[in-house]
Amino acid sequence: MLLHLYFAGKFVRNFIVALSIFTIFMLLIDITEQLRKFAVSTDFIEIFFLALLNLPSSVYQVLPLIIILSSASIFLSLARNSELIIFRAAGKSSVSMLITPAFFSFLIGVVAISFINPIVAATSKQYENAKAKLVDGQETTISIGNEGLWLRQADKKGHTVIRAKRANSDATELYDATLIKLSEEKLPIQRIEAKILTLQESVWIAKNTIIWPITYGVNSQSHIQERSIVEIPTSLKMEQISDQFGDPSTISVWSLPDFITQLERAGFSAKRYSVWLQSELSKPIFLLAMMLISAAFCMRQNNVKGTSLNVLTAVIVGFLLFYAKNFVLILGINGQLPAFIAAWGPPFAALFISLGLFLNREEG
User: Fold this and answer.
1) DSSP string, 254-288
2) Which pLDDT score is estimated for 139?
């Protein structure tokens, strides 16, 4: 019991140190990147705020690397101080020494998807909106609800709110759409209903439309206009829809099941979101595999050159497994693999590979 408490203290301490170093390092990198992009048009306070919004997502993505390095630090410290030799001489096997690090690696994965993921989703969404406002001078909001697709675009002339019952796969063609144009004072000035609304270059093409003017003291019903085609100017681009509507990382894992249901009801493909949800749920298994990679290469006494080579090898193997995991996820998103296999296959494969490496090197 005391042995496991000792390992727990070292693991938590090393993980916090590695997490702090990566957080500071990535914040400085992101501030530099934001300064490069927006230094001319934005003051430092806004740039620092953008970097803070993007920081949780950046750290969340490198969590496997943090696990590898913090675990490597623990095992190298134990080997350098000859503690591993003492533990083995006391009759403790190498596998028993991994119980506490394995538990905490899995626990970090559970905490990451339960508590950190919602924070990352919220800050990523705010970051994308803030960046779009700085780049294009406007803010666009896209959401899915029980009533269908909702979209709000803003420009110098005011705002337009669009609701559609259904849409195509990339939301560039909306069906049974209603548009409410708002003035700069956020007051409605016109209502348009269209059977089909198609996004083209800098314009919405509305087909089979009915237009109601909304003016104080004027009977809107008596001024109805019916047109076969109407062009509605817009600054919205197809890439903006893909960025805001197509990124599952901006949605919390707690909200994804309901969002997937609403997405399918609105006529969209939910394959990408289903694969992402399963991938997030499998994160604890993958982090456990990363810890075992460090154990496989760093639980031996070596000289300085050998130690550096072992750490580098552990990081390289971890990166290879990480990129293999992302490659299989792409196959799942494209429909070439079932979502369950694409999401859970790589973490379990990484777990068995790392466990095999550890047993082969430590137990012979």
Assistant:
1) TTHHHHHHHHHHTT---HHHHHHHHHHHTHHHHHH
2) 55
